[in-house]
Every structure is written in structure tokens, then in C-alpha cells.
Design brief:
about 230 residues; Rossmann fold; 7 strands; globular; binds flavin mononucleotide; seven-stranded mixed β-sheet; alpha/beta
């Protein structure tokens, strides 16, 4: 009999696999790689890592669809004077998103931490640079979804998600949420809504992504991939 203090391996294995998946999750296609497959672009900003974890779960959902690849990109921090303050290539994590990434993608998932019930400034700054794409109609008809992480359970998940959808609607994108046929929407003790996946990270970032939050992320990725295939 194992002692009460030591859990049997079978009890800890599922959690271990779940954690390992995060550590080994890919960043999608390397920058500049030629791809013949349909690509869903995932652009996010993250300071403490929660939104980055959501992005990887969305990518798992995208890549569960045969023939569809996730291209994961981030955006740099901005300074008070709004010039770019980071190096051109991030020290770690995925490359920075370019406007060419937006032109090339078949669908888009956009992620941001919640900041005062809205998206973070670096994400808005990136979007505000898309005027030429808007003039060209480059994003019209492409599916898009949004995701967020917030430290409190009712601190603006839904307002952030809804406000992130507004510029995407201006671009003529087809907004994709998560339907209640995803059972986790009814059971989630943390984040997740029909407006998109979200994660309640906790005041000290003590909450890991739970299974319902992860399932809702994967649903969004899967839906975006299916829509991209059907519209290709
Ligand atoms: C300036 C600022 C504003 C924030 N506003 C909110 C908020 O309105 N509601 C909330 O629940 N959390 C808020 N947070 C907490 C972040 O949303 C939370 O820590 C999130 O998990 C960060 O995501 P990240 O780990 O991807 O950086 C705020 C954090 C900062 C720095």
C-alpha cells in the first residue's frame, strides 16, 4: 500500500502529461517557412505567461484538423512614447507577428491579457497598424476568434473578448465563438464563454489552466481550422 503522503503513479500521471504538453508545445511554423497547408495565425501578447498557454491550447485545437497548421506569433511591448522597445527578434518564444502574417493566414486567433476590462495596449497597437490591410480588404471573409487571461473571475473576461472582436469586425472578418455543444462551457469553474476562451489566472497567477478552460481553447482552434478548410 502506498503511504497517504505519496500518490500512486496512476493518480498523478494525467496531470503530469497535461503539464508536459505545455512544456513541449510547438510554436508552429518557423518564421519564413514556406507552407502549402492551410494556416491559422495565432497572435497573442503575454507578460506572465497565461495568455501564452491559452495560445498553445488553441494551436492544439487547430492542428487536430488534418491539413491545417498553426502559425503562432506574438507582439512586442510598447513604450510610453509608442516606439518599439524590444529587439526585432524575441529572446524566447515565437517570433513577432508581421502584417504579412495577417495577409497570409486563412484564419486568425487573437489573444490578450485583460487590462481594465479591455485588451492590452501592445495588441491594440498592433491592430492600429493594420490600416493598409483594411484599405486593401485583406482580411475580409476570414474567420477570427479571440481569447484572454484575467486575474479575477469576474474582472472583465467577456468585455475584453467582445471589445477585441470590434476591430476584427471592421476588417470584415467572420467572428467565431464557442457554442454550448462544447460541454465545458456549462461546467467550467474558471474562464471560458461563448465569446471565446478565457483563463482565470488568480491574483498571484496561482491557478493553472484547468481542463474546461483548455477544452474551450481547443474548441475555438478546431472551429477556426474547420471554417478555414471549408472556406478555402
Ligand atoms: C494594468 C493591468 C490591468 C489589469 N486589469 C485587469 C482586469 O481588469 N481584470 C482582471 O481580472 N485582471 C486584470 N489584470 C491582470 C491580468 O489580466 C492577469 O494577470 C493576466 O493573467 C495576465 O496575462 P498574462 O499572464 O498572459 O500576462 C490586469 C493587469 C495589469 C498589469
Amino acid at each position: 500500500m502506498p503511504s497517504k503522503a505519496v500518490k500512486p503513479l496512476a493518480a498523478v500521471l494525467p496531470g503530469l502529461c497535461f503539464a508536459l504538453e505545455y512544456c513541449t508545445a510547438p510554436f508552429g511554423v518557423p518564421h519564413g517557412t514556406e507552407m502549402s497547408e492551410i494556416e491559422v495565425l495565432i497572435v497573442y501578447y503575454s507578460v506572465r505567461g497565461s495568455t501564452a498557454i491559452l495560445a498553445r491550447e488553441v494551436a492544439h485545437g487547430v492542428e487536430s484538423t488534418p491539413g491545417v497548421q498553426a502559425r503562432i506569433r506574438t507582439v512586442p511591448r510598447i513604450s510610453a512614447h509608442s516606439e518599439q522597445i524590444d529587439d526585432a527578434i524575441p529572446a524566447s518564444g515565437p517570433p513577432y507577428a508581421t502584417y504579412q502574417d495577417l495577409r497570409e493566414c486563412a484564419a486568425l486567433a487573437l489573444g490578450s491579457p485583460t487590462r481594465f476590462g479591455n485588451m492590452a495596449a501592445p495588441v491594440k497597437y498592433f491592430i492600429d497598424g493594420t490600416a493598409q490591410l483594411w484599405l486593401d480588404g485583406a482580411m475580409v471573409g476570414k474567420p477570427a476568434g479571440v481569447f484572454t487571461a484575467a486575474s479575477s473571475p469576474h474582472g472583465g473576461h467577456e468585455s475584453t473578448l467582445l471589445s477585441m472582436q470590434i476591430p476584427l469586425l471592421h476588417h470584415g472578418m467572420l467572428i467565431c465563438g464557442v457554442p454550448y455543444t462544447q460541454p465545458a462551457l456549462n461546467t467550467t469553474p474558471g474562464g471560458g464563454s461563448p465569446y471565446g476562451p478565457s483563463h482565470w489566472s488568480g491574483a498571484g497567477h496561482e491557478r493553472s489552466l484547468d481542463r474546461d478552460e483548455a477544452a474551450i481553447c481547443r474548441s475555438l482552434g478546431q472551429r477556426l481550422a474547420h471554417l478555414a478548410v471549408r472556406l478555402a
